[in-house]
């Protein structure tokens, strides 16, 4: 940990000596007037290769130097240029920051990075990754995404020399990707939220096929009117599920009444979206509801009850994920099972067996699990 206090240091040999490595300072002699810095002569490697030294030479804080070198944050062009010039003069690389720490890929650690850990989906991800890591004799480190770019996951992971990183439902920035590549730490994306994977390998499920299976099932169970509750924001997997559903519905029942609503992936929002749809849909007969997550499907149950209707009779509901709560609903929820644990395990195995190819995309199949919410009026 660097000392954030500003210090002066004694003169030696007619000029200032560099401060101790890791000490944040203000440089009282401009770096351009320092031949020992500008020419890299007479300066020990341990003293000239840290971010703190770059900051001192440029006359800025360590945080400012870090942001300037990463191209982050707003700052004067002259400041950014001064930091870049100091880094070049000092021959600064991230190797200096890692001195005394494991090199990238050398520790038997795999980091699982998630934005949060306390929901049923991420619990399944964690369980799958932990089991696979233990089987392969790796330790799994749970790492949380943070808002502060100077203390986000690449900084922490690089410092411990992890063998690899699984990013769950997160698309890294170009800068974060570059930091990992420079550190020699491979990254695998688990269900990336965007169609662009930034040249990184990924593990995902057959979301489009899952949406198609939901439509086929609702049609087979006698639904003649349809409600689709998509997710907002419209992540890649949500769009694929909706597209698969409507593609199959258009082929089988092109004139069927339909309403497409969006919700913020939660039960409360799913309830509100389903309420709007049930009011707005025309025609008679059973309504088939496809919600792009089990949580939104649970909200749809409440909307059906609010309307005085019956789940599994008047309204048939299909969710997506097959989280454990799907079995606890009454009636139990028909859903498209996503192999969440298996996907997380596959991502860990990709890292443990060596740096995976950037073009590698592993898709695991979804499966429709029929339960009481689509039993139909005649059953």
TrEMBL record:
Pfam families: LacI, Peripla_BP_3. Residues 1-40 are annotated as: Disordered. Residues 49-103 form the HTH lacI-type domain. PROSITE patterns: HTH_LACI_1, HTH_LACI_2. GO terms for molecular function: DNA-binding transcription factor activity; transcription cis-regulatory region binding. Keywords: DNA-binding, Transcription, Transcription regulation. It comes from the Bacteria. This is LacI family transcriptional regulator. It comes from Microbacterium hatanonis. The lineage of its organism: Bacteria, Bacillati, Actinomycetota, Actinomycetes, Micrococcales.
């Amino acid at each position: 940990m660097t000392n954030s206090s500003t210090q002066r240091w004694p003169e030696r040999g007619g000029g200032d000596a560099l401060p101790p490595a890791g000490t944040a300072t203000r440089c009282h002699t401009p770096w351009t007037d320092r031949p020992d810095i500008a020419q890299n002569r007479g300066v020990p490697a341990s003293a000239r290769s840290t971010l703190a030294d770059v900051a001192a030479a440029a006359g800025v804080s360590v945080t400012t130097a870090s942001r300037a070198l990463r191209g982050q944050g707003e700052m004067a062009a002259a400041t950014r240029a001064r930091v870049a010039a100091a880094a070049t003069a000092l021959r600064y690389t991230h190797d200096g920051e890692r001195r005394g720490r494991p090199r990238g890929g050398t520790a038997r650690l795999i980091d699982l990075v998630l934005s949060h850990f306390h929901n049923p989906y991420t619990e399944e991800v964690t369980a799958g990754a932990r089991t696979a890591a233990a089987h392969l004799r790796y330790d799994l480190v749970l790492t949380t995404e943070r808002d502060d770019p100077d203390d986000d996951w690449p900084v922490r992971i690089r410092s411990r020399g992890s063998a690899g990183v699984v990013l769950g439902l997160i698309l890294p920035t170009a800068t974060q990707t570059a930091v990992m590549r420079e550190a020699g730490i491979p990254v695998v994306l688990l269900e990336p939220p965007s169609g662009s994977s930034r040249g990184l390998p990924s593990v995902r499920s057959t979301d489009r096929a899952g949406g198609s299976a939901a439509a086929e099932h609702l049609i087979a169970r006698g639904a003649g009117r349809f409600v689709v509750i998509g997710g907002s924001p419209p992540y890649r997997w949500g769009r694929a599920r909706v597209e698969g559903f409507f593609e199959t519905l258009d082929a089988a029942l092109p004139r069927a009444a339909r309403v497409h609503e969006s919700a913020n992936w939660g039960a409360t929002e799913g309830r509100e979206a389903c309420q709007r749809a049930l009011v707005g849909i025309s025609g008679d007969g059973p309504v088939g509801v496809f919600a792009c997550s089990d949580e939104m499907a649970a909200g749809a149950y409440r909307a059906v009850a609010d309307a005085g209707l019956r789940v599994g009779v008047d309204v048939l509901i299909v969710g997506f994920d097959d989280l454990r709560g799907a079995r606890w609903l009454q009636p139990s929820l028909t859903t498209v099972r996503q192999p969440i644990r298996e996907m997380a395990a596959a991502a860990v195995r990709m890292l443990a067996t060596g740096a995976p190819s950037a073009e590698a995309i592993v898709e695991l199949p979804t499966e429709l699990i029929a339960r009481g919410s689509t039993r139909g009026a005649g059953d």
